[in-house]
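Handout, section B. The chain below has 207 residues.
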Amino acid sequence: MKKIIHNGVSVNLAPQTYLPAEDTYLLLNASLATVRAGESVLEIGSGCGIISKILKEKRGARIIASEINPHAARCTRSNGVETIRTDLFKGIKAAFDVIIFNPPYLPTSRDEEIPGWLNYAFDGGDDGRETIDRFLTEAWRHLKENGRVLTIISSLTGIDEVKKRMDEIGYTTSELDSEKHFFERLVVLKGEKVEERVNRNSYTLST
């Protein structure tokens, strides 16, 4: 099994598992700046587990991961992170302070699909938002009051459309960081389940 060292932490890599790339490190840096010591954290789609492992070792986060790819789930476990092999939140009942997800965000047609498990890491459906929309809706029910979601998307995904969806669900949304690449801009979005806004939305819905 291959290894890399990042932030002084040794991380196992594995075949048929998404390798850390620009989006991984951008989301990792935002996560390190956001997660506080001892917070409960769920990482959806952990890949090799680099974000989870570094948050566990550098922030003392109480972390659990989920991953649909069996090769990636095994790799994350090998990095010392409790991992559930499942699709997004299926079977997860707990609520968390922070939920992190590097989603498949590339618009992908049928003839662009990659054979095998790696397709789950890239295939965002026709508009790139198929999985991120599911995640944002389900994550709301798994956040504690004043909890946060951190996710990363591309300008190819439709940044304004994702922000609009987050606002519709009830998140208070902000951009934490971004990077320009030759064909896209990567953006880390934070969505907060702000208690005051939750209560206001609940009153509106009940009247």
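Note. The first strand starts at residue 3 and ends at 6. Compare this with the example in section A.
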